[in-house]
């Protein structure tokens, strides 16, 4: 995968989260490193953490989604 393709995936994943109906997901960060699409930030429930992961899967392509989102109750 080229750097350009990876950046397009990061941009698409970020856009999906930014348009989410769940406000907490809109502030999450997405980056790519070593063929991983990494999610970072904080949410209030494990459900929201899972929602974030599921939201980006359709655009992840060959990148492995790694969810580093922290849950703070």
Q: How many strand units? A: 3
CATH architecture: 2-Layer Sandwich
Strand percentage, roughly? 25-35%
Could you report the average pLDDT, rounded to the nearest whole number? 95
Q: Trace the largest sheet across and list its strands.
A: 1-2-3
CATH class: Alpha Beta
**How many structurally independent domains?**
1
Pfam families: BON
Organism: Stieleria neptunia
InterPro entries: BON_dom
Protein name: BON domain protein
Structure, briefly:
This protein is α+β, with helices and mostly antiparallel strands. It has one domain: 2-Layer Sandwich (Histidine-containing Protein, Chain: A), CATH 3.30.1340.
Structure description:
The chain is 37% helix and 29% strand. The chain is of the alpha+beta class and 73 residues long. It has a single domain, classed as 2-Layer Sandwich (Histidine-containing Protein, Chain: A). It has a 3-stranded mixed β-sheet with strand order 1-2-3, with helices on one face. InterPro entries: BON_dom. Pfam families: BON (PF04972).
Topology:
Blueprint: H1 3-18, E1 29-33, E2 36-43, H2 46-56, E3 64-71
Parallel strand pairs: 2-3
Antiparallel strand pairs: 1-2
Keywords:
BON domain protein; 3-stranded mixed beta sheet; 73 residues; 2 helices; BON_dom; 37% helix; 3 strands; 29% strand; alpha+beta
């Amino acid at each position: 995968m080229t750097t350009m393709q990876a950046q397009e995936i990061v941009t698409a994943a970020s856009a999906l989260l930014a348009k989410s109906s769940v406000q907490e997901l809109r502030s999450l960060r997405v980056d790519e490193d070593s063929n991983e699409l990494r999610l970072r930030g904080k949410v209030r429930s494990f459900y929201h953490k899972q929602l974030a992961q599921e939201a980006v899967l359709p655009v992840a392509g060959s990148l492995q989604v790694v969810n580093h989102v922290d849950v703070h109750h």
